[in-house]
Design brief:
CATH superfamily of the largest domain: Intracellular proteinase inhibitor BsuPI
Shape: globular
Distance between the termini: 87 Å
Helix content: 10-25%
Oligomer: single chain
CATH topology of the largest domain: Immunoglobulin-like
Structural class: alpha+beta
Strand content: 35-45%
Number of strands: 8
Order of helices and strands: HEEHEEEEEE
Length: about 170
């Protein structure tokens, strides 16, 4: 009887310690983040020069990393993942000109698709042997609606939403 009580007590203690350790791991932030430095209105401009923060988050640029509390140069140039991309404007208006910028860690082939909500391919381009590429697809003939930009490089796939809202005269 006493032996089973100690087993129960030991088991409960082990579980409690494991749970406490996992809670500590969840709420511990890297030493390069200072929550007192976080700014909610940090940067002006939309420059896309991604940096990888010490928290393994890709920030749009150095200013946004610093605004998130990343200090002591706790970031490196380039995305955290193998590839990241951004585009503007969103939504696309009358001009129909879209600027997509893809940045990879190494030189590779970059595949770019744009699909509509019915998964019909509206645009495709492959850029061979690039590390950093800008593409300018013309979306004037797409019509108003929601579209998906899909980028693939070295098996890494990212998807972002694009809204086309062309003003009809």
């Amino acid at each position: 009887m006493m032996n089973s009580f100690f087993r129960y007590l030991f088991g409960t203690l082990v579980i409690a310690l494991a749970f406490t350790g996992s809670l500590k791991a969840q709420f511990t932030q890297p030493s390069c983040i200072d929550s007192n430095m976080v700014s909610f209105n940090p940067c002006f401009g939309t420059t896309y020069q991604p940096v990888c923060g010490c928290d393994n988050v890709t920030y749009r640029n150095e200013c946004l990393a610093i605004a998130a509390g990343i200090v002591n140069f706790g970031y490196v140039d380039g995305p955290c993942e193998f590839m990241d991309f951004d585009f503007n404007p969103n939504p696309v208006y009358t001009a129909g000109q879209l600027d997509i910028r893809v940045i990879c860690k190494e030189i590779t082939d970059i595949n770019v698709w744009i699909f509509d909500t019915f998964f019909r391919q509206r645009y495709y381009q492959v850029s061979r042997q690039f590390k950093d590429v800008n593409l300018f697809p013309d979306v004037r003939n797409f019509g108003n609606g929601l579209y998906f930009i899909v980028i693939e490089a070295e098996g890494v796939v990212k998807v972002k939403r694009l809204l086309v809202n062309q003003i009809i005269d």
